Amino acid sequence: MANQLLAGKCGIIFGALDEKSIAWKTALRCHEEGAKIVLTNAPVALRMGEINKLSALCGQAPVIGADVTNMDDLKNLFEQAIQHFGGPVDFVLHSIGMSLNVRKGKHYTEMNYEWNQKTLDISAMSFHRVLRTAWDLDAIREGGSVVALSYIAAQRVFPDYNEMADAKALLESVTRSFGYHYGVRRKVRINTVSQSPTRTTAGSGVKGFDGFINYAEAMSPLGNATGEDCANYCVTLFSDLTRYVTMQNLFHDGGFSFTGVTQSVIEKMGD
């Protein structure tokens, strides 16, 4: 049920590829809660995905392509968004992640370092670029909110998550550091949401994903959080109800992150 939590607000959603995407679900929830949005993704993702369908579902939201490793593209994106909205944005979602070593089957101990650099650039330093561009253009309204999606592999070892664990750790570090500066300057909040393993197009590419998601379900007192529930959580972080939450990595995982073991896992290990 919509409560108009984002009525009068406007924002940019990065990374909606298809209906499985958390960014896609978040865009829909923001629209339902009264926000106006701009959708963006890399040009190749725009060609591969179904973002025009999402645009129609969100009241013909503008779709603006942007390579997040290109500062000129990001500058153009924010300038067009400001022009479209008639002023700064209130919120931004960064839902971007790509691992060349995972995609090409390179084990963590044998990674290709050139590919690794691209992974860190796209999956983590792109967040710094987004924030830097918004900072330079004063493109986020005072008291605004920025959220990036992370995963607990930034803190704990999940062998097949590979180099993306390093990328998420860097992403969370950028969140803290830029969050300090943006908070002092414009009271802008910057947080990451550490989501349960979710059946997105990108997430399903991780080796052993089915076992991964089943284990997390068994280890979470509330069960895995769905993509829809993550979208709901993002809406609260974009709203005025969380004005003093910043520089945090917020676990949205059904309790997985603080559970040592569950009775169901003990019973399965005893079989």
- CATH top-level class: Alpha Beta
Instruction: Give the end-to-end Cα distance, rounded to a whole number of Å.
Output: 43 Å
Helix content: 40-55%
Characterize the biggest β-sheet.
6 strands, parallel
Beta-strand share of residues: 5-15%
The value of Rg in angstroms is 18 Å
Please tell me what the overall shape is: globular
Sheet/helix structural class: alpha/beta
**Which CATH architecture would you pick?**
3-Layer(aba) Sandwich
**Number of H/I helices:** 10
The CATH topology corresponds to: Rossmann fold
| Tally of discrete structural domains | 1
In spatial order, strands of the major sheet run 2-1-3-4-5-6
Mean model confidence by pLDDT: 95
Number of strands: 6
Order of helices and strands: EHEHHHEHHEHEHHEH
Q: Tell me the name of the CATH homologous superfamily.
A: NAD(P)-binding Rossmann-like Domain
Q: Poorly predicted ranges (pLDDT <50, ≥5 residues)?
A: none
Topology overview:
Elements (H helix, E strand, L loop, with lengths): L9 E5 L7 H11 L3 E5 L2 H6 L2 H7 L13 H15 L3 E6 L5 H4 L9 H25 L2 E11 L13 H23 L2 E7 L13 H11 L7 H12 L10 E4 L10 H7 L2
